[in-house]
Design goal:
alpha+beta, about 25% helix, about 20% strand, globular, 8 helices
Length: about 280
């Protein structure tokens, strides 16, 4: 795996070596952290994995009006969400195919390269490259055109693109929904998808945050608070909201659906990439 990624992504291997040096940890530990999904898929092919579980909602408002994990220091930038100066941004959902392609490209390296995309077409070319080990679900946006896409990519680079139409929303957990292939059953995703269908379609940012903060399901809630009966060890690290109309990205900790709980940690201007002061 190291030889494969060094040959195709030498700059990102150098980046990981710098992360390891800066963090004072062995390079091998950092490398494995960036390939954990692929390694777990190979070592535990029949077990559920939701340590990386994310719930994402894409909301496209009717014209003319118009999200998580934060990358850990041991990982390449964009392991959860990201955006660049070309107006291309994304969030990610782990997916669990039944038959990973090994050796194959790690999802973290592919999403890191996505930060270099200068257009949606280039982004689609990057994320559908052949030879991927596991694949990923990408929620793509173009700030300039307001285009919203969900792109599911499987082992080898097989992909399916779904456009989120104006006036609609799309919820995605950690299962393939429109790319047809064999996948491992993820009970958490079934629960979160079912709960999202029960909720009213969000009409604005406040209602979208309310959906992401929902805790009604006692086993596998959309917002993970450490009290779920089925996966109490899993908690939501943070919630990111890309508001294309306002041109901002905001990141909160705490329950995003409760004003008394959420705490704004970061706020960026998507046009200038400048960090904004809290208002």
């Amino acid at each position: 795996m190291l030889q494969l990624h060094t040959a195709h992504y030498p700059e990102y291997i150098t980046e990981l070596r710098g992360l390891a040096d800066g963090a004072g940890v062995p390079f091998e530990q950092v490398l494995m952290a960036n390939m954990r999904q692929e390694l777990l898929a190979l070592a535990q092919p029949h077990q559920q994995q939701h340590e990386d579980s994310c719930s994402d909602v894409l909301l496209s408002l009717p014209a003319p009006h118009g999200p998580p994990r934060h990358p850990a220091p041991r990982e390449l930038a964009s392991s959860g969400f990201g955006f660049n100066s070309a107006g291309i941004g994304f969030s990610l959902n782990a997916v669990f195919p039944a038959a990973p392609l090994m050796p194959g490209f790690s999802r973290n390296f592919v999403s890191r390269q996505l930060l270099q995309a200068r257009s949606i077409d280039e982004a689609l070319t990057i994320i559908s490259r052949p030879g991927q080990a596991v694949g990923h679900s990408y929620n793509l946006f173009d700030l300039n055109s307001r285009l919203l896409l969900n792109v599911e990519v499987g082992p080898g680079g097989a992909s399916s693109v779904l456009e989120v139409a104006r006036g609609s929303f799309y919820f995605h957990a950690n299962m393939f929904k429109h790319l047809v292939l064999r996948q491992r059953i993820d009970a958490s995703s079934f629960h979160r998808e079912a709960r999202a269908l029960q909720l009213q379609a969000p009409r604005d940012a406040a209602e979208l945050l309310g959906m992401l903060g929902d805790t009604a399901d006692p086993e596998y809630s959309i917002y993970r608070h450490g009290n779920n009966t089925a996966d109490a060890a899993v908690v939501t690290l943070c919630t990111a909201l890309f508001d294309l109309e306002a041109g901002t990205m905001r990141v909160w900790t705490g329950n995003p659906g409760r004003a008394s709980s959420r705490r704004l940690q970061l706020q960026f201007d998507l046009h200038t990439l400048q960090l904004l002061e809290e208002q």
